[in-house]
Amino acid sequence: MNTSANSSSNRTPLIAGNWKMNMDHVQGSSLLQHLAEALSEAKHDYDRVEVAVFPPFTSLSAVQTLIQDDGLGLVSGGQDLSPFDSGAYTGDVSGRFLARLGCKYVLVGHSERRTIHGETDEILNAKVKAAYRQALTPVLCVGEGLDIRRAGTHVQHTLAQLRASVDGLTTDQAAGLVVAYEPVWAIGTGEVAGPEDAQEMCGAIRAELAGLFGQDVAPKTRLLYGGSVKASNAPSMLHETDVDGVLVGGASLDADEFASIAGFERQLAG
Ligand code: PGA
User: Fold this and answer.
1) In this structure, which residue's CA is closest to atom 2 in ligand 1?
2) Bridge partners, residue 17, by sequence
3) How far is the CA of 263 from the centre of ligand 1 (A)?
4) Atom of ligand 1 nearest to the CA of 229
5) Three-class SS of residue 168?
6) What is the model's pTM?
7) 14: helix, coil or strand?
8) CA distances from 191 to 180, 226, 233 (A)
9) pLDDT profile of the chain (270 residues), mean per 10
10) Alpha helices for 80-153 (secondary structure H)
11) Residue 224, SS3?
């Protein structure tokens, strides 16, 4: 069980909200204010359970200004970054710009980027390295589609994505990495994988990281589950040994719902 930065793991749980292409900067500011209020009412301890939001690029500045000016305990991240630091890449956003805004995290390889934008593991490996060049923590998303799940090869498939994306990282980078397991068939569909599915894959990911980077590195890497997470199913996911957090899409657009997910420890205790 991993309900907090506990003695067996010392991994601080991460509750991450991926707003996707929702919330312009005015709506985003309002959502963030509501979220901060809900968390404050719940006396949320950010050192114990980290809370991160991933707004669209155009809302990041407004969100980050609120976080800084109001001294909020939340942190923010970008939904994507360029594999390059600057130059003639029209429409792309450099990790340097995200870091300058005060972002801590950046999503890399969300399934919507892989499928809609054709991002390959090779590109994602370059993006992970670009994030580290700017001292951003990548949240690397991996996971299988329904056909692969039905064929029963989901573990091999997901581990192959992982291996290709972390190629060439240092042990310190691997230890600091966040990996989000998101079965594509459970994203935005209401189909949620069971806690045992999340544990099966997160356990396999941690074992793979141990093989690649060493037994002392893998216990430090934080692993998230994502896909139709809500306040009602988050605690059972977070109860699993190797699940250190959740990546939440739809439910992160509702401040009260997302705040209750962040308060999962109360449900586990109660
Ligand atoms: P969902 O999205 O929670 O709406 O399923 C998760 C994600 O895509 O990160």
Assistant:
1) 249
2) 53, 248
3) 19
4) 3
5) coil
6) 0.95
7) strand
8) 17, 11, 11
9) 51 98 98 98 97 98 97 98 98 98 98 96 98 98 95 97 98 98 90 92 98 98 97 97 98 98 88
10) 95-101, 111-116, 121-133, 146-151
11) strand
